[in-house]
Design goal:
single chain; alpha+beta; five-stranded antiparallel β-sheet; 36% helix
Length: 551
């Protein structure tokens, strides 16, 4: 009977007991303020957070507890929530004493500015919640419940995640940057860019000389290191020599300017290439993630250095091969004058497959060739050598242009792959008559400049195809009078990044028009006018022929 009589009062008593327990012993930090902004209940967790006794807060307004700007800010937030009836959430960080005072009053609702723990800044989130009247839930709030949550660990995890994402994005960006490098100086520029990105005060790259034997690794069998051992450069500091010797990164972390360094060996295919050194003046410590990032970047740099050196060696070999195949002087033939200009592509671009040739035939005529093997590097240079040799062999069998191109088509189809496109213009000139027989295999037209300075394009075979693309080869005959000049050229002369072929051809015809002062002055004027000192991506080849009339 007694249990039944007190049943209606028991829920309220239980609720009160639960609230008392939560306030005294729970870990939730909260406080309740009435409409007069007085604290009516506060949890022990909130009081402990602010190093105060709960009795110091109960029954008092924030301004009475903290009679300064801090108390006024808290009361302003409470008044705003009571007036609006809307929750208010404020994520903010609290640091050592005085750090929060610089915040804008409109952006801060810190109830009592919790003290830092263990000297470290703590991060908190404050929720100000309007408490409705149980008797009139649609009416004004009867007070405000403040709940404070320590979010320090959450923020720390978020910061670590952002840092990890930054490192990943940074490594991807630098890898993409390095992937486009074709020379060691470009790799060194990328190394400096990374140093700027990670706030290094000094970025250095030390590379071993590739012309000397490689330094052996400790785990390479002795018989493989005979004749390969050498000392490090004498001017290298000892820590760099040690990193190259054992291939292990080294980190020094200390206070003071320039005291923190990251020394990262560059490891190639079985042998070191050099070492990177980044210096910092902020006394930073290199965490595990920092070391993984830096060593991954050093690995990408090593690959780029090795690739660049391979490219440079191939480039030198291709240039040497091409120059060995191109004639450095042209034959002296009575009645006709020859001239040429050849400019290789810029040093940071691969050598192309341009070539020119002039040789006298048994019947007294002279064969003239200007061609281009599509492609770059050793492949193009070697392909040019094969086509040049085959053309000479065919010309001495039957020098007629149509016959030579037909023979080249058959040979090209049998020996070359489909991607090795080759274009050329081949001509045979009779110095005695000035008659010039020409045939074209997908190449650009030639330019004829008459003795009186008029110039025109001569299409040798409209819409002709490159070698290996079957078609019936035809030839065209042009008569050159004494003083007339014929000019053959490669696309590097008329096509650039900012100028298309059609526009370049028009410019070439205009440049060739005017007073005909001779072959050499004309070639020089054309080259200066169309190329000058502007950068070029491709090889430039010009071959000129002038009828001298027996001079």
């Amino acid at each position: 009977m007694n249990d039944d009589k007190g049943g209606s009062e028991r829920p309220a008593a239980v609720d009160a007991a639960l609230l008392d327990t939560l306030s005294a012993h729970g870990s939730t930090a909260f406080a309740f303020y009435d409409r007069q902004l007085r604290c009516r209940r506060v949890s022990g967790a909130l009081a402990r957070m602010h190093r105060r006794a709960a009795a110091d807060l109960l029954g008092k307004r924030p301004g009475e507890v903290s009679p300064d700007a801090r108390g006024r800010r808290i009361e302003a937030v409470l008044s705003r929530v009571l007036a609006d009836g809307e929750p208010h959430i404020e994520p903010h960080a609290t640091g050592p004493d005085g750090a929060a005072d610089a915040q804008d009053p409109a952006d801060s609702g810190d109830p009592a500015r919790p003290e830092p723990v263990d000297g470290h800044e703590r991060a908190y989130e404050a929720q100000w919640l309007p408490v409705p009247d149980p008797a009139d839930r649609d009416g004004p709030a009867i007070g405000v419940l403040l709940v404070v949550r320590d979010v320090t660990e959450q923020r720390r995890c978020e910061d670590l995640l952002r840092a990890g994402q930054w490192r990943t994005a940074g490594l991807q960006a630098m890898t993409a940057r390095i992937a486009g490098t074709l020379s060691v100086p470009e790799v060194e520029d990328a190394i400096g860019e990374l140093g700027v990105g990670i706030a290094a005060v000094c970025s250095e790259a030390y590379l071993l000389d590739e012309t000397t034997p490689v330094y052996p690794w400790p785990n390479v069998p002795a018989q493989r290191t005979v004749g390969r051992r050498r000392g490090m450069p004498a001017h290298w500091p000892a820590d760099l020599v040690a990193a190259v010797t054992d291939g292990v990164a080294r980190y020094t972390c200390a206070d003071g300017p320039g005291a923190s360094r990251a020394i990262l060996p560059l490891v190639g295919s079985g042998a070191p290439l050099g070492v990177l050194r980044y210096t910092f003046d902020d006394g930073r410590a290199f965490g595990a993630d920092d070391r993984v990032f830096l060593e991954a970047f050093a690995g990408q740099c090593a690959l780029a250095v090795e690739r660049s050196r391979l490219y440079e060696r191939e480039h030198r070999t291709a240039v040497a091969l091409q120059r060995s195949l191109l004639p450095d002087r042209l034959p002296a033939v009575p009645g006709v004058e020859f001239g040429f200009r050849y400019l290789p592509g810029a040093p940071d671009f691969e050598v192309g497959g341009d070539w020119y040739d002039v040789f006298q035939l048994p019947d007294g005529r002279v064969a003239i060739v200007v061609g281009d093997v599509i492609g770059k590097g050793l492949t193009a240079a070697a392909g040019m050598g094969r086509v040049r040799s085959a053309l000479r062999a065919l010309a001495f069998t039957d020098p007629e242009p149509a016959a030579v191109l037909t023979g080249l088509d058959r040979l090209f189809t049998a020996t070359e792959d489909d991607e090795s496109l080759t274009t050329l213009v081949y001509a045979v000139i009779d110095p005695n008559t000035g008659l010039l027989d020409l045939a074209d295999a997908g190449h650009l037209p030639v330019v004829v400049v008459s003795a009186d300075g008029k110039s025109r394009l001569v299409e040798i075979g409209e819409e002709s195809t490159p070698l290996g693309v079957a078609e019936h080869r035809t030839q065209h005959t042009v008569r050159l009078d004494p003083g007339d000049i014929l000019i053959g050229f490669s696309d590097g002369l008329v096509e650039t990044r900012g100028r298309g072929i059609d526009e370049g051809l028009d410019d070439l015809v205009d440049m060739a028009r005017g007073a005909n002062e001779g072959l050499e002055p004309l070639l020089t004027a054309i080259l200066d006018g169309l190329i000058g000192d502007r950068g070029r991506d491709d090889d430039v080849t010009i071959l000129g022929v002038r009828i001298t009339g027996g001079d």
